Amino acid sequence: MAKKFLLLSIFLLTLSQSLSAATQPVYVIVHGAYGGSWAFKKTDSLLTAKGCLVYRPSLTGQGERVHLASPDIGLTTHINDVVNMILYEDLRNVILVGHSYGGMVISGVADRIPERIQKMIYLDAYVPNDGESVKTILGDNFSRVEKLVQNGFMVPTWNKSNKIPGDVPQSLKTFTEPVSLKNPMADKINHVYILTIEKGKKPEEDDFYPQAARAKQRNWVMFPMEADHNPQWSAVDKLAEMLYQNK
């Protein structure tokens, strides 16, 4: 009798764990240019405390993978980073979050493996069309980026002391290589756009307002958020709650 009770207890525990895993929200957060997974460490902690499973891949050449930096790294490399992480971790029903440049990356990821993605959240991020790059999206404004270029890298001059963790140089090719978006299944994924707006400014004054306008034209769910471009630092509690509410 005791043995049967033990086996039943083990079965119920295993079933409970399986059901919990099946309903546990899975987030994959892709950082922006020059950054790394370290930038979303606090966001990860807050979502994990709410019962979510969070992955924060650092793109090749960025963050703790800076030792792999090369001017040959392009947007495709970064798309492969995230695609392979999702496949090798066997993640499904993924809530894919892209911040800033990360919008280019998650767009390419969804085109490759739409069947693994439940929702896409663009956090003050680029919303590319097929064949576009960051360079073509920015147009004349790309001249600001070109001022940062040294030996095939865009160098973040604001991190003069090379602080760790901190922003690091990023291959120029990641901004000039166009994204390929050919899979119609990616359009069927639920999309959300979060536009961060600094206090005292109008939405139209935000650098990413044109991207939010694109998202609106595509009938994506839209959310304004009072914060600067990096809410993972300036408004992390608000950001984590907004991401959680959009699970």
Keywords:
single chain; 247 residues; alpha/beta; Rossmann fold; 6-stranded parallel sheet; 3-stranded antiparallel sheet; 10 helices; 17% strand
Task: Explain how this protein is built.
With 247 residues, the chain is an alpha/beta fold. The protein has one domain: Alpha/Beta hydrolase fold, catalytic domain (Rossmann fold, 3-Layer(aba) Sandwich). The relative contact order is 0.15. The chain has helices at 2-23, 41-49, 75-88, 102-112, 134-138, 143-146, 173-176, 209-217, 231-234, 236-245, and strands spanning 26-30, 53-55, 94-99, 117-123, 149-150, 153-154, 170-171, 190-197, 221-226. Helix 4 links the parallel strand 3 and strand 4 (117-123). The protein has a six-stranded parallel sheet with strand order 2-1-3-4-8-9, with helices on both faces. It has a three-stranded antiparallel sheet with strand order 5-6-7. It is built from ten helices and nine strands. It starts with a helix and ends with a helix.
* Contiguous runs where pLDDT drops below 50 for at least 5 residues: 5-21
Annotated CATH architecture: 3-Layer(aba) Sandwich
Q: Output the helix-strand order.
A: HEHEHEHEHHEEEHEHEHH
What CATH calls the topology is Rossmann fold
How much of the polypeptide forms β-strand, as a percent range?
A: 15-25%
Percentage of residues assigned to helices: 25-40%
Round the mean pLDDT to the nearest integer and report it: 93
Number of E-type strands: 9
- Could you give the order of strands across the largest sheet? 2-1-3-4-8-9
End-to-end Cα distance: 43 Å
CATH class: Alpha Beta
